[in-house]
Amino acid sequence: MPRFDITIAGELNLDLILYGLPQELPPERESLAERMMLTLGSSSAIVAHNLAALGTRVGFISRIGDDLLGQMAVERIEDAQVDVSKLHRSAGAATGLTVILQKESGRQIITYLGTIAELIFDDLDLEYLVDARHFHFSSYYLQRGLRPRVADLFRELKHAGLTISLDTNDDPDDSWDGSLEQVLPYVDVFLPNAREARKIARVDDLEAAVRHLSKSVPVLVVKLGAKGALAQRGNERLTSPPVAVHAIDPVGAGDSFNAGFLAQYVRGADLGTCLVSGNYAGAFSTTRAGGTEAFRDREYVTKFFPSTLTAPAWK
Ligand SMILES: Nc1ncnc2c1ncn2[C@@H]1O[C@H](COP(=O)(O)OP(=O)(O)O)[C@@H](O)[C@H]1O
Ligand SMILES: [Mg+2]
Fold it and tell me: In whole angstroms, how large is the CA radius of gyration of the chain?
C-alpha cells in the first residue's frame, strides 16, 4: 500500500479576510472593516488540509519564506495531520499572502505571490510524490515557477501509475494561455468552476464549454456555487444539488469541494458519491470563515457529514 492516498505540490500561505467593508474605499481615507480573519489560505493548502480532516492521508510539498506568516500556515496544515516533511524554506524570502475584501458587490482578491512563485520542478522529491494513489494540482496560474514543467511532472506521475486531478483556479492575467493543452492529456479529473470552465474553453455558454472540455479529460467536474456541481464523463452527465446551509463565507468553497470529491475518488467511490461528497465539503466550508475553519472543528465535521463520507474504508 502506498504511504499516502494523495500527494500535492503547491502553495502554502495565509488569507487575510476583511468583512463588513464600505462599498466605496476612497483613496487617502481611513476605511473600517467590521471583522477580520487571518486563516489558512491558498488552494493547494486548503485542499490538503480538508482532505486530511476527512480522513485522507496527504503528503504536501511546498516552499515558504522564513517568516511568521509562513510558520503559522505550516502549523495549521500540520494540525490537520498533513505530512510536510519535504517542505522548503527560503531564507530571507516572504511567504505569499492573499488579502480578500468581502464586499456585498462581490469579493476582491489580491495576492502577493512571494514564495508561491518560487517552488520549482527541482524542489520536488518525485519518489515522495509517487508514493500515493493520486496527485492533485491547484493554482496553475499562480505557480509560476512550476508551471513550465507541470506537463513533465504529470508525465512522471502518470508513468508511476497515479491518477491526477487539476483545479487551475483563476488566472490573474486573464489570458488563460494555451499551455494547459499540454497538461490536460494527463489529467483524470478536471475541477474548474463555471467561470473558469468558460474562460478556458473560450466560450460564453457553459454547455458549450462543458462539451468542449469534456473531450480532453475522462472526468470533468464543474462547480456551480450555490447551485451545486455537475460532472461530464464522455456522454454521461451527472448533476448533484447543493447541500442547503446558511452560507456566511464563500472563501475556499471550491477548494473544499475538491477535497470532498477527491476523498471519495481515491476510495474508489462512484462518480455520484464523489459529487455528493464535494457538495457537502463545499457547503460545509461556507458555514464558517475562510476555507478551513469549519474543518478544524472535528466535532462539527462529524455532525455535518454523513458518516459514510468521512470514515475511510480501510481504517
Ligand atoms: N451558498 C452555497 N450553498 C451550498 N453550497 C455551496 C454554496 N456556495 C458554494 N457551495 C459549494 O461549494 C462548491 C464550490 O463553490 P464555487 O463558488 O462554485 O467554487 P469556487 O470557490 O472555486 O469559485 C459548489 O460546487 C457547492 O458545492
Ligand atoms: Mg476555485
Answer: 18
